[in-house]
Amino acid sequence: QVQLVESGGGLVQAGGSLRLSCAASGSIFSIKTMGWYRQAPGKQRRLVAAITSGGTTNYADSVRGRFTISRDSAKNTVYLQMNSLKPEDTAVYYCKADITYRGAYWGQGTQVTVSS
Length: 116
Prior knowledge:
The protein is 0% helix and 59% strand. Strand 9 and strand 10 (103-106) form a beta hairpin. Strands 2, 4, 5, 6, 9, 10 and 11 form a seven-stranded mixed β-sheet that branches. The protein is mainly beta.
């Protein structure tokens, strides 16, 4: 089995920062892509940021310039540094990993709440 464990969510005031972490463990050959998605109440789950095994990144327009995705390949871990947080960033944030020969896996989600 493959497990993704997220951490780092919490409550922060607008303008503040949080750093999310997602560690993959289990039977992993290699991770092709890891990304962060978020889902606010009543809304669809949407891509926030992703990073490939080669280091190529992709960001939603709404977070570009404020969020930074990074990875530690040796630890099978991806991070999301979130700066200048806004109330509209409030959501459950989910980690997703596309693993070679095994497919896609999701973490359990971590709540991020930004107060005004």
